[in-house]
Each structure stands twice: as C-alpha cells, then as structure tokens.
Amino acid sequence: MDSIETQQWTQRYSDFLQSLPSRPARIVYQRDRARVIHSASFRRLQAKTQIFGLSESDFYRTRLTHSMEVAQIGSGLVEQLITVGTNEQGVDAAYMEWLPSFYLIEAICLAHDLGHPPFGHGGEVALNYMMRHYGGFEGNAQTLRILAKLGEYTPNNGLDLSRRTALGVMKYPAIYNDVIAANTTYLAQLQEPQVDDFRTLKMNRWSPPKSLYLEEKELFDWVLAPFSPADKLRFMQLVDCKECHRQTQYKALDTTIMELADDIAYGIHDLEDAVAMKMVARDLWQTEVMENPVFKEYALWDDEMTKLLFSDSSKGRKHAVSKMVGIMVESIYMDENTDFEHPLLRYQARLQEGETAVLELLKSFVFKNVITIPEVKQMEFKGQLIVLELFKSLRANPGALLPSGSYEKYKKAENEQAQQRVIADYIAGMTNTYASRLYAKLFTPTQGSIFDRL
User: Fold this and answer.
1) Which residue among 172, 209, 325, 384 is the one 20 to 30 A from 180 at the CA level?
2) Which pLDDT score is estimated for 2?
3) Do 365 and 382 fall within a single domain?
4) Which of 374, 396, 418 delimits the end of a domain?
5) Same domain, yes or no: 287 and 362
6) pTM above 0.70, yes or no
7) What b/e string do you get for 11-36 counting C-beta neighbours within 10 Å, with b at 16 or more?
C-alpha cells in the first residue's frame, strides 16, 4: 500500500477540517484503540445488558466483556488470515497488504457497541419510538455519533478516530431518511397518535431501521470520499423489503471481520452463559443442535464436545467453548466481490460453508432458547418502560430534569429534532443501573434525595 493511500485512511476528521497531514498508521490505529478504551462510553458498557440482568451474577457477560471478547476473536481472525495468506514459497496473497493491523481491528471491535443503550435491544426499540419523528434511534448509528460528536476526546469531533476505523464500525452505510422512505407500513405508523400508556404499546412494531443518522452525514460522506462514485453508489445501495425496512447489503473488509467475531461471540460465548445458568438443558442441545440435519451434514465436533459443554466442571465447559471458537476462527478465508473496485470493499472475510451453517444454527438456538424466552423478555419489557417514561418526563420538563451540561446543549439546539436528539443522547449513554436509579428517584415516593449522586 503506497503512502498516499495510507494517509487517506489514517486521516482524522479534525485533520481534514484543518488541512493537517495524517500520521503514520502504526501510531494512528494504536491511538484509535486507546481512545476507545479510555472513553466514558466504553467504561459504561460494564453496566449495560448483554443478555442477563446485571444483578443475576458477577459471572455473566456484560457489553464490556462481550466487546473485549469480540476484539480478541477479531485479532485471531486476522492472525488466521495472515497464516493462510502466505504460501510455502513465502509469497503473500494480494489481500495481505489490505488486512487491518491488530490495533486497528481491536479498535473497531472494541468500539462496535459503544452506542448500545441501556436494556439491550429493548432500550433501542424504546428510544426509536420516542425519536420516530426526530430522525430515529439505532445502536450502530449512535456508535458513529459517539465517534463523530459525543466522545470526549475533542470539543466538536467526538473521539475523532481515523477514517478507516470509522468505516469499520459502519455496519449499515445508509441514512435513516433514505431507509424509511419506501417503507409504506412504517410511514403509516408514523401518522398514528402518541401512545401515552406505554404498557399498551406494541413495541415489536418499532424496531429501528438499520441506518445512520442524517446528523452525521458530513462525516459519513468524508469516510466514503476515497471510493469511486460507482463503488459508493453500490456500497450504499438499499435492497427493497416488503413491509419492512430496506437494508444495505455490503460491508467493508474490516466490518466483515468484526461481524464474524461478533457472531462467534454471540453464538458461542452467550451459549456458555446460558449453559452455566442452566437455561439450556443437555437434552435440548442434543435435539436441536447435535441431531439437527444442518449439524449432521457438517458435524464439526462429536459427542465429546457435548459432554464437556454440559459437564459439572467450569473448566470442561470453558474447554468446549474454546474448541468451538477455534474451529470457527480457523475456517476463515478471504473472498472477493469483483463488482467493487477498491480493495477495502472488494475483499470480504468469510467462514467456510460448514462453519457458517453451524454458526447460524448456534445463533438461532441461542435466540430461540435464551433471547426470546418469557423470563428474558419480561426484563426487557421492564427496561423499555423505564426508558419510555424517562424520555417522556425529560421531554416535558427539560429545564428541570436534564443535567446542566445536557440542558445547555438543549437550549443551543437549532431545532426541535436537535433538542430531542440531546435527550436521546443522554438516555442512550445511561447504564442499566443509572437508568433504574433515576427512574426510582423520579417516580418512587420513598426513593431519592437531593444528595443522591447517580
């Protein structure tokens, strides 16, 4: 990769605005990773839900430990791509010069959930409902907003990470307004009157469109600037969907690695939590996974894995999980989509057919038997109500209830949408614990004091 190409991708938005030169990749990506790790948004992930509530046990995963595991798996995937990209004669595959460094892939993986609101997907849906007339809410879009504006590293440009890191976290390269434009069902829903009794609100109708906010369009355009017009058009292309939101269908190279790492962590590590918590029985695993036709076709492991996974020993369970992750990581290869010109869009990391099929099976198993069971959905519902009631109260009484810093932003906001975005930013940045305590302080008569430090 020549130096001019490198400088395009190591450039920071603040450098671009001031016409300052870019710094070397080895410095920039290491500092991107450091900025993520030292950010308040990253620390708050320790008190945000992965699957189980924070009070369930200290053992189970939070968004912080999940993000750390995704980063570790991401590095492992890059290492494997390096291993398979060098032949016995020492000749490197063409994709090798475009692989992300370990610093870069870890920065992307560690940052991928920064915009995750309190109470998991339920909190995301609740915020999207309250922001439905004001540009929407979506976790990935909120992540880019933290990188672009909210992060504390710069006064006006957020964490101000490099162009390539910002590209890597953009899972859905399309603007909210463009995504909903063709969804007549959703547009009709937007005309419905406000529901004030949130307990009667059918939340599954308000899943957020996978997109980025219009407010970050300038940064979005800057990130994509090195690509040709044809590449940009194809990358942002939306696929029509009957009675659902249109979605983009392409990811950048680094995003494909991050998403594989995320899927492996979700499908296997979250399974470990469910087994440890005895939410998934061995018989169910045997029936729905080991005897599933998909697994029988590829049979990536034998019954010894089941014995280890469901053993009384935590060491046995951990050994099984480690072996499963290893099988997935070692199956990675580099594909090419020749419709794209630029290597960062043309090269696509993928798992082999069997590993892809089995990983999808594991994800479906976790979704069916853990994510969507009543015990988990009930806690999600409670979290949604907390978010909805907090937003409703803050919207009605911003001067009295918003913290002074947020209220100053609110007063300076140029329009109503910008004002509502300030409230959304405040709530999205809350941890589960903070949101629950603020709710109790405002709505439980026996709770709260002027001396409370939330």
Assistant:
1) 384
2) 45
3) no
4) 374
5) yes
6) yes
7) bbbebeeeeeebeebeebbbbbbebb
